[in-house]
Every structure is written in C-alpha cells, then in structure tokens.
Specification:
- It contains 3 helices and 10 strands, in the order αααββββββββββ.
- It starts with 16 loop residues before the first helix and ends in a 5-residue tail after the last strand.
- The longest helix has 19 residues.
- By secondary structure, it is α+β, with helices and mostly antiparallel strands.
- The chain is globular, with a radius of gyration of 65 Å.
- It has a domain of 134 residues: Immunoglobulin-like (Sandwich), CATH 2.60.40.
- Strands 1-2-7-10 form a 4-stranded antiparallel β-sheet, with no helix packed on it. The protein has a 4-stranded antiparallel β-sheet with strand order 5-4-8-9, with no helix packed on it. Strands 3-6 form a two-stranded antiparallel sheet.
C-alpha cells in the first residue's frame, strides 16, 4: 500500500510491527465475525414432516386384525329317552270277574212284538268266542234307526249287576236271552229298519244286532215325556 504523498513516513522508531500485526489480525477477525451470516438451525417442522410415524401409530395402522374365534355352538345335552311305564290294568270289581265282554258276544233280534202301546224286542246273546264267560244282571238297552242314530236309551245306570243276581255260565256257542221294552214314541216314525244294541256293565263294551224287518212303533202316551227303553235281566 502506498501512503499519500506529503504525509510523514513512519520512522523505524514508530509503532512496533508486532503491534501492527496484532491490530490487523483483530481487524480481520472482527470483520469476519460481523459479516458472517449464521446458518439457520434445523426447524422442528421439517423434523415433524419427515419423521416416521410413531411406533404406536404404525402398530395401530399396520397391525393385522386378530381373528376372534367364534365359540362353536354347544349341543344341548340329549336326555336319554325314558321308557314310558305301562299303566297297570285297572282291577275289575268282584262282581265283574268272569263276565262276558261285548267282543265275545253276538246279538240277534229273535222277534218284534207289540201290545198296541209298547213294542218288545226279544233278543239273544251268543258267546261267539272260544272261551267260556258268564252273563249276569242287566245290560243297557238302546234303540237305533237305520242310520245308526240312537233314538232311545235306557241310560248308563241300567247296566248293573247286584250280588243277588244269579250267574249264568256261557260256553262257546251258548246263548242267553232278554226282552227289550220300547214305549211312548211321540215323534214322526223313525227311519226303518230299526235295530237294537246292548252295553255291558263295568265298561265291558257294547254289541249291536242287525235289523229284523220293520219294528212296530210304540204309541205316544205322554207327549211331553221322552221315549222309554228298558230291558229285563238275562235269562237262559
């Protein structure tokens, strides 16, 4: 560097060179520090933008759903079938022991009769089975028209056996008899041919005859009373 002319030149006894050099070094350092632009620090935004998702978020987003086992339906225990008890047979009363069942008997009308007021059906019961049985007391008598409609009935109480009734053994093929009375018919003539039926006491069943021609119709005696049916005790 050239000093302008006219200025006194420094002598050799002026400012020491070492001091000058130190000042120059300080000046250079000061200029460098003041003019330097600090580098921007890394921002949190960039870090936030480029950061990978957190472990928990990644795990939530990428985790494979775990299949939940659906419990298989449990079959209801099947109860072992209980064998039904066979109901014990109802014991028959002493008076019913040995009596003929309806299924063992065949009923036949032997004849119809009439005394101008009451009609009478003479009937017989035959043992059609292969076993002997007994007939005793009374059976319940019924009158039916040709269509099977019951038009006269002695009532359930008519089928009865009392201790004083004699016992009549009926061997296979054997027969026994009774007479049915039918009176006080106050309606239009029933559809013929009329037939009869008998019901055994003690729930031993009923048995039916075939018709025998046209039955004589009883006379109406009391118009406000129902027709009357009854039967005698069985006799050989």
């Amino acid at each position: 560097m050239h000093l302008p002319s006219g200025l006194p030149r420094p002598s050799g006894h002026g400012v020491p060179r070492s001091l000058v050099a130190a000042c120059i070094a300080l000046l250079i350092a000061g200029c460098t520090t003041g003019s330097a632009t600090p580098a921007p620090a890394a921002t949190d935004t960039a870090a936030a933008t480029t950061a990978s998702p957190t472990a928990s978020a990644t795990a939530t987003a990428t985790a494979t759903p775990v299949a939940t086992d659906t419990p298989a339906p449990t079959a209801a225990p099947t109860a072992a079938p209980t064998a039904k008890a066979t109901p014990a047979a109802t014991a028959l009363p002493p008076l019913a022991v040995g009596l003929c069942k309806a299924s063992q008997l065949k009923l036949v009308i032997a004849l119809w009769a009439n005394d101008s007021v009451t009609s009478y059906a003479h009937v017989s019961a035959t043992n059609k089975s292969s076993s002997s049985c007994n007939m005793r007391g009374h059976s319940e008598a019924r009158i039916a028209d040709v269509h099977g409609n019951i038009i006269g009935d002695a009532g359930a109480s008519a089928a009865k056996v009392v201790p004083s009734d004699p016992v009549y053994p009926l061997a296979p093929g054997g027969s026994i008899n009774t007479i049915i009375q039918w009176g006080n018919w106050c309606h239009a003539a029933p559809a013929q041919k009329v037939f009869v039926a008998m019901v055994q006491p003690f729930g031993l069943g009923g048995f039916v005859s075939k018709a025998l021609g046209n039955a004589p119709i009883p006379t109406c005696v009391a118009s406000k009373s129902k027709t009357q049916v009854s039967s005698e005790a069985w006799l050989p």
